[in-house]
Amino acid sequence: MECYDLLIDVYGRLTVFPNNVLQGFPPDKLNWQPRPDCNSIGWLVWHLTRQQDAQIASLMNEQQLWIKNGWASRFNHSPNSNDVGFGHTPEQVSSFTFPDIQIMLDYHCDVQEHTLNYLQQI
After folding, report:
1. DSSP label at 64?
2. What is the pLDDT of residues 15-39, one digit of tens each?
3. Cα dihedral sign for 63, 58, 6, 16?
4. How many domains are there within the chain?
């Protein structure tokens, strides 16, 4: 097995994670934090997807889908390529408002497709 095959397998497994977490999850609970210093489930799914988007865009020397495909506006966020969740304060996490579940799933699917297409070409 080549290292790229391993990456394709690992990233391919990430496809089911948001669907398993978000489908049927009460939307009013996505922004809930068990404690003020904890991340919400919605924030964690967003962060996972944003980070993947940023990493793949960097490897490809391309603009992130967050900006290029207009996902930032659908999340009511600024198109800041540096805002992937790292370093967010508890206040920033608590002010994060999860969008419609389908928007998150569509963004994740867009990032997944982009990632797998890239990995299959290298």
Report:
1. -
2. 777 888 888 888 888 899 999 899 9
3. negative
4. 1
* The two three-digit tokens of residue 117, written as one number: 């297409």
Mean pLDDT of 4-17: 77
SS3 31: coil
Alpha helices (runs of H) in the chain, residue ranges in sequence order: 3-13, 16-22, 41-60, 65-68, 71-74, 90-95, 101-121
Residue 61's nearest CA partner among 90, 83, 81, 33 is 81
Residue 44, C-beta contacts closer than 8 angstroms, at least 6 positions apart: none
pTM: 0.89
Reading the block at residue 35, the tokens are: 């404690």
Taking residue 117's Cβ as centre, other Cβ atoms within 10 Å add up to 11
Q: Which CATH number fits the domain that encloses residue 34?
A: 1.20.120.450
Contact 46, 103 (CB under 8 A): no
Q: What is the DSSP letter of 27?
A: G
* Pairwise CA distance, residues 97 & 75, whole Å: 8
